[in-house]
Write a structure and sequence with these properties.
With about 300 residues, the protein is α/β, with parallel strands linked by helices. The chain has three domains: about 90 residues, D-Maltodextrin-Binding Protein, domain 2 (3-Layer(aba) Sandwich); about 80 residues, 3-Layer(aba) Sandwich (D-Maltodextrin-Binding Protein, domain 2); about 90 residues, Alpha-Beta Plaits, CATH 3.30.70. It has ten helices and 15 strands. Helix 6 packs parallel to helix 7.
């Protein structure tokens, strides 16, 4: 994506331009910002302090979409969003995979041997551990990657650097003195797009994902029987996450992604079986598979 000349504006939520806004969690220059601009290049972005704020902006009609990370190939699931999804009335309408390319950012003209410490989110620092250890640079945890870059820019101290995106470097006037410093070459984050309305008229000839949540009954083999319903109907489940509800050890919520269109007869049969063994379930959305997912399957 060419970011040159882009006007990175923070648009007030009180302005009447919600149809041209997409929210994300973090500061300008966050990887979520990068994902949002790749998905919606013609829209403006609204940085939000928390995931709750980003989703609430959609729910309240202040923005059209929210772009939220849900899992990372290195760090696993983004736990916070899984706890928020059951309490949201929003719909998932898309997915996007972003290759995470960490950059070592510093004040312009800084030489790598001048750096004594780098700031970043703890996951980003963990993903660059071997590189930082090899360089002998101390790692210090900060709120998030973009906020770290902003802080380094404001400090004006050439001994301090940040691990963040190239976009963060552009926004905050920092220089990338080493790129692609992540230890794992497969480091990729999956984002989902939330909207107030579900997708309508989803073509049946496109590879489709369907996301849903469910709570199994507290009976023997209930989860096994739920899974069997999808297996016997030829439905491929690509993701299954579990977490406790309100601290109750016997009340488990599950989040699942499956490769199926809502009109597939096999999916309808699978959901019929699901209803026998669950207290409740809710479809979060059906949406086209990302080209990244399709290419990976080939």
């Amino acid at each position: 994506m060419n970011t040159a000349g882009v006007n990175w504006r923070i648009i007030s939520m009180v302005q009447n331009n919600s149809e041209n806004l997409v929210s994300f969690q973090g500061d300008l220059g966050a990887y979520s910002n990068l994902a949002a601009k790749q998905l919606f290049s013609d829209m403006d972005v609204l940085p939000c302090r928390t995931f709750e704020d980003a989703l609430a902006a959609v729910d309240e009609g202040n923005v059209k979409y929210a772009v939220i990370p849900i899992e990372n190939s290195v760090a696993g699931r983004v736990a916070d969003i899984h706890y928020l999804i059951p309490h949201s009335n929003l719909h998932i309408i898309g997915e996007h995979f972003l290759r995470i390319n960490h950059h070592l950012l510093a004040l312009p003209g800084t030489k790598i041997e001048e750096l004594k410490a780098v700031l970043s989110h703890e996951q980003a620092l963990g993903q660059c551990r071997r590189t930082m250890d090899a360089l002998g640079i101390k790692r210090e945890v900060f709120a998030d990657t973009a906020a770290a870059a902003k802080h380094v820019s404001e400090l004006g101290d050439p001994s301090m650097g940040a691990v963040a995106s190239s976009l963060a470097g552009e926004i905050y006037g920092l220089e990338s003195i080493r790129k692609d410093i992540e230890d794992a070459s497969h480091n990729t984050t999956r984002f989902v797009v939330f909207s107030r309305k579900p997708l309508s008229d989803l073509p049946t000839n496109l590879p489709t994902m369907t996301s849903f949540i469910f709570q199994v009954r507290n009976t023997p083999a209930a989860l096994y029987k739920v899974m069997g319903g999808f297996a016997t109907n030829g439905i491929n489940m690509t993701k299954l996450e579990s977490y406790q509800l309100d601290g109750e050890i016997c009340a488990t919520q599950f989040y699942a992604d499956i490769e199926a269109h809502p009109n597939d007869i096999g999916l309808k049969h699978a959901f019929d079986e699901l209803s026998f063994f669950t207290n409740e379930y809710r479809i979060l959305g059906s949406y086209p598979q990302s080209q990244y997912r399709i290419n990976k399957r080939r």
